[in-house]
Amino acid sequence: MNKTEMAQALVSKLDFVKTQKNANLIIDAFCDIIGESLRDGDSVQIMGFGKFKASLVKGREGKNPQDPDSTITIPDLYRIYFSSGQALKDKVNESLKKSSKKKAAAPAKAGKKSAPAKKSGKKKK
């Protein structure tokens, strides 16, 4: 799903979002707020959805992939991490839970025997 599709989904799901332009403004504001909070050193936690966190990665010397004999300086940067909340995990795995219940509820076929145990490769003396 891209931003346009997300805006269309917001318009169709929420009555107070009348236009796609308003939906785009909401998405932009949401992303700006998260970005500003991470830049300021805060983490952003949305219960049930997940947690955004930024961690500083120190700069270092690295190899230039186009010229392995030369080195380049890799600057400090923030790496963004996201850990999903339980409600999001449950929503994503919802279809798997439904299909596993159907398989578990299916009756076993009559007359089917289990396979005999495998013999170990050792000989008896």
Name of the CATH first level of the largest domain: Few Secondary Structures
The secondary-structure element order is HHEEEEEHH
Q: How many structural domains does the protein architecture include?
A: 2
What is the CATH architecture assignment of the largest domain?
A: Irregular
Give the fraction of residues assigned to helices: 40-55%
* Cα radius of gyration in angstroms: 27 Å
Give a written overview of the molecule.
By secondary structure, the protein is an alpha+beta fold. The protein folds into two domains: 1-41; 43-95, HU Protein, Chain A. The chain is 40% helix and 26% strand. It has four helices and five strands, in the order H-H-E-E-E-E-E-H-H. The chain has helices spanning 3-13, 20-39, 86-92, 94-105, and strands at residues 44-46, 50-57, 60-64, 67-74, 77-84. Helix 1 packs across helix 2 (20-39). The longest helix has 20 residues, at 20-39. It starts with a helix and ends in a 20-residue tail after the last helix.
